[in-house]
Amino acid sequence: MYIPPHFAAPSDAACIELLRTHPLGTLVWQQADALEATPLPWLLRQHAGLQLAGHVARANPLLKALAAGPLPVLVIFQGPQGYISPNWYPSKAETERQVPTWNYSTVHAHGHLRAVDEAGWVRELLDELTRQHEAALPKPWRLEDAAPGFIEQLQRVIVGIELQVERLEGKFKLGQDEQARDQQGSAAMLRQRGAHALADAMQP
């Protein structure tokens, strides 16, 4: 990924926080004659390094690619993003030297992916994913709330996958190359339009 220095993520911690708060990542891998891509929700784990855990359908062709062993892959995570109009920059009225752009933050996780076809591992993953995403709800749903045997039935048609992250690349293109008043002006307009997450991300 091309990353001009002024758009580089401030730290690995900032990249990890984006993974945590925007856990849907697109998994990209090389097939024999083409690239394949699949969006998946990931669980972030930190045990002697950084791991991303998820699951795919047993029929997914990814599993054939993993049959020979760990596979080099890329997972792309997208943070807040949106269109920026030149009309939102106070300097535009003075110079007429502004153009439209798109602000965004993204993180690319590189590493080797392995399949984990173990019922206990997959059950623990499903439990962690569920607890994480249900935690903020007034009455969190649990795996144990499903009909007896239903989760075990579903588990038979999925396989766990785990990525050992070897490198993170983060690009946070959030108006850092603009004057402070233009950053503030565009953030204010984003808030008016309800894009609060992107406006918050643009704050220095």
Descriptive account of the structure:
This is FMN-binding negative transcriptional regulator. By secondary structure, the protein is α+β, with helices and mostly antiparallel strands. It has a single domain, classed as Roll (Pnp Oxidase, Chain A), CATH 2.30.110. Helix content is 29%, strand content 35%. The chain contains 7 helices and 7 strands, in the order H-E-E-E-E-H-E-H-E-H-H-E-H-H. The protein has helices at 12-21, 62-66, 92-95, 119-134, 150-155, 180-192, 196-201, and strands spanning 24-30, 35-41, 43-45, 50-57, 71-84, 101-116, 158-173. It has a 7-stranded antiparallel beta sheet. Strand 1 and strand 2 (35-41) form a beta hairpin. The chain is elongated, with a radius of gyration of 20 Å. The two termini are 23 Å apart.
List keywords for this structure.
7 strands, TR_PAI2-type, seven-stranded antiparallel beta sheet, 204 residues, FMN-binding negative transcriptional regulator, elongated, 7 helices, Split_barrel_FMN-bd, Pnp Oxidase, Chain A, alpha+beta
